[in-house]
Amino acid sequence: MRTTYRSLFRTPEFTPLFLASSAQVAAQTMSGLALGTLVYRATDSPLLSALSMFGPSLAQVLGATTLLSAADRLPPRATMTGTALAFAAGTALLALPVPLWAVFALILALGLVASLGGGVRWGLLNEILPKDGYIVGRSVFNMANGITQVAGFAAGGVLIALLSPSGTLLTAAALYATAAAVVRLALTPRPPRATGRPSVRETWRTNRTLFSAGPRRHLYLALWLPNGLIVGCESLYVSYAPGHAGLLFACAALGMLVGDVTVARFVRPHLRPRLGVPLLLLLAAPYLLFLLHPRPSLAAALAALASVGFGASLLQQERLMAVTPPELAGHALGLHSSGMLTMQGVGAALAGSMAQLTSPATAMAATAAASITVTLALARGLRPVRPSPVPDLA
After folding, report:
1. pTM metric for this prediction
2. Of these four, 26, 41, 88, 250, which has the most CB atoms within 10 Å of its CB?
């Protein structure tokens, strides 16, 4: 039986996982905008503003190389509850008048926590849904993320104006605590998917195994690099248009929503492998026009058009799951999530540094050109191939 959007919400535990994830996305959206605004007001630096919003992503590489084996070796409910509570506490601390170095130390710590949370969440989703349901289920999460980000950025902008960046951060902390409560009360306890103790050595061993085959390696690079560079463009919204950053973020989220709906609902399975590269090119091309310094309304339309290309991620994740055994699903998806978020942090750092030396518009166009170059370099390795099994880890 084919998995449909309606059947997803009749699947046990899907709804509470969906609600908890949506609350966390809303909190992340609001806190990111508030923190970026807070740092930009204090420093007038595009680089520091970009790093404050996307800096937690840079810490993902540390988690991916040290903590990721725990994604399949810890009980999902307890782990997800703990990570949500850690974010609630860390976001509340960011609302306090702390020195700039302390802000970035907290950002680093939260990034380490996030590197584990993504693998646990998406591994549990893969476990809850039938085999053919992952791409549909993940698309629902992505669509909800798009809607939540639109609402979150709009609400964040209003709260920053009515309260303050600090008040907005406290609101986000309350949302993280709500997500922890939903996970703890509504999900049932499940055993870990894999046996053995998590360790740095096991994390490295499984990472090498997953990255060993050419087709998987190209999939990971396509999941990490092109969209990481484009998030670098997004990290400059605050410095490009300080009074309209919320509009730009909201329109980008709306475009991502359109892309995910189109890919999951309207693209036939046999056509999906052909669309990955075109969507990645669409993700970058509109940002080339920022070199012309478009006014905020046109910039928002370009951001929305570009973000349709984020739908490529769904296609690549579906192919990744087809070549990954179930007992490594959490680790494989966690490696994707951590690597993607790490590259988003790298993209923000690169774009912010370039903007510091030139201008936000010039940096956005140059970063988009780099994304297109990477996509074209990877295109040959992304052609559909027969799945290659993962070697036995025993």
Report:
1. 0.68
2. 26
